[in-house]
Amino acid sequence: MHALQFLVPLGWIETVGPLLPIAILTLAVGNIITRLLSHRKHKQQVEDGEEGLDRYPPHVFTTTGLVILGMLFTVHRPTSGMILMLPLIGLFITDFFEFESREVEARNDLEFERPKAGIAVSLLVLVYAAYYGLPFLYQPVLDALLA
Predict the structure, then answer these.
(1) Cβ 141 vs Cβ 32: under 8 Å
(2) With contact defined as beta carbons under 8 Å apart, do 25 and 134 qualify?
(3) Are 92 and 35 in contact (CB under 8 A)?
């Protein structure tokens, strides 16, 4: 019995819960790809002399989707979800500040840098997502070592 069972109907989360780690892993890979495409688009905008940078909608979708799926995963598996939410919140905050720093670089004609912090946090999210989404790859090894 869940503590919130009488406030929020949680029966559906038991159905989709096992699929959440795979969905998070898919969005984590997509987030890295869209981050690189977003950087390429921003670099092109700077070279074309456009006044401001536009947010890249696929990247916004993957980042927002990761945060929402992370919250759903927290409802399904609270401890694992909270552990996963830490780098996801870091990813969300990093995306916000890196976009602002790219705009400052574009506005002041500074050297346009790669999103190093965003890539690092994205890789951390990918590692956590792979840990929760692909347990069949490492469980036999851990079972052999710890049994």
Answers:
(1) no
(2) yes
(3) no
Separation between Cα atoms, residue 21 and residue 73, nearest integer Å? 8
φ and ψ of 61, to 5 deg? -60, -45
- Model's pTM, two decimal places? 0.86
Report d(CA 37, CA 56) in Å as an integer: 8
| Rounded distance between C-alpha atoms, residue 147 and residue 136, angstroms | 16
Which pLDDT tens digit goes with each residue over 13-34? 778 888 999 999 999 999 999 9
CA dist., res. 120 & res. 83, Å (int) = 17
- Cα 68 from Cα 71, distance rounded (Å): 5
What are the φ/ψ torsions at residue 77 (nearest 5 degrees)? -130, 95
Helix (H, G, I), strand (E, B) or coil at 134: coil
Tokens representing 117 are 């912090």
What does the mean pLDDT of the chain come to? Answer: 88
